[in-house]
Design goal:
- By secondary structure, the protein is mainly α.
- It has twelve helices and no strands.
- The chain has helices at 21-25, 33-36, 48-71, 78-85, 89-93, 99-123, 129-146, 148-157, 163-189, 198-215, 225-238, 253-272.
- Helix 3 (48-71) crosses helix 4 (78-85), helix 7 packs across helix 8 and helix 7 (129-146) runs antiparallel to helix 9.
- The chain is elongated, with a radius of gyration of 24 Å.
- The model is unreliable at 1-13 and 15-48 (pLDDT under 50).
Length: 273
């Protein structure tokens, strides 16, 4: 393979440096641009480098996740990752400057983005609690099913993360838990959810979603990541939802008293039987 080595910190993205995905991503520009008018086809510099960089970085994250899981963070270096990618170390330096930098980017991708989406769903007052809960559970489970190696890496080695990466990870996990708790509490107040403990239930939902990274293997069954996430999201709602005949009409103390009267009536019938 011909090496086109570049020093770290250059402004030009290396092309043709990988045997696999990275090489294809850095390939030649399409030639039929003017006929289509598509900015991506024209090689618009504002569009193509971003898409190419994302493709290569995803491959870097995937290979790094495998190596970190296999050898541990301390037992893996950038040369190992470059070799797994089929690119030179100087080419790898264009995308990441150090192991810590790579891990920080991976943690941010896996936690910060989803946490922001979960917070937005929890704060959306146009959604019913059951809908919000399902959407949040689906979001977590789909990410775990789509990127199982990365999820396993963070969940298995979170105690060994470098300080900055650990701080980012904890912040994202906390935001996700608080979003789930907010939705669960709202569902309880509205009488749509059973009176469960919000924190314990939020942790249980998160645990269900996280475990998808281990049990969902598309080669072993017919579940796509979307289908696996859908099953888990449905279960998350089902475990807190009140039965239809136990859902009060309205909210507040009067609605709660109405449910208590139903329970007392049932208890009296059982005692009289």
């Amino acid at each position: 393979m011909t090496e086109r080595s570049r020093e770290a910190g250059t402004d030009t993205e290396p092309e043709g440096t990988s045997r696999g995905t990275a090489k294809r991503a850095a390939g030649r520009r399409p030639t039929k641009a003017k006929a289509t008018g598509d900015p991506k086809a024209t090689g618009d510099p504002a569009k193509r480098p971003t898409a190419r960089r994302e493709l290569v970085e995803n491959e870097i994250f995937e290979q790094a996740s495998l190596l970190f899981a296999e050898r541990g963070f301390s037992g893996t270096n950038l040369a190992d990752i470059a070799e797994a990618m089929g690119i030179t170390r100087p080419a790898l330096y264009y995308y990441v400057k150090s192991k810590e930098d790579l891990l920080a980017k991976l943690v941010a991708q896996m936690t910060e983005g989803p946490a922001a989406e979960m917070e937005a769903l929890a704060a959306d007052e146009t959604l019913e609690p059951a809908v919000s809960l399902r959407e949040i559970a689906y979001l977590i489970a789909f990410q775990r099913a789509s990127q199982p190696k990365r999820a396993q890496l963070l969940l298995r080695f979170e105690a060994d993360l470098p300080p900055e990466a650990a701080k980012t990870h904890r912040s994202g996990m906390r935001a996700g838990k608080l979003g789930l708790m907010r939705v669960i509490e709202e569902g309880i107040v509205k009488g749509q959810f059973r009176p469960v403990d919000p924190e314990a239930t939020a942790l249980a939902v998160a645990g269900m979603c996280n475990w998808v990274a281990w049990w969902n293997h598309p080669g072993d069954h017919d579940f796509t990541p979307a289908e696996a996430a859908g099953h888990v999201a449905d279960l998350a709602v089902a475990m807190v939802l009140r039965p239809g005949d136990r859902t009060p009409e309205g909210t507040g103390p009067k609605a709660a008293l109405a449910l208590l009267r139903q329970d007392l009536d049932y208890l009296e019938r059982v005692l009289e039987a």
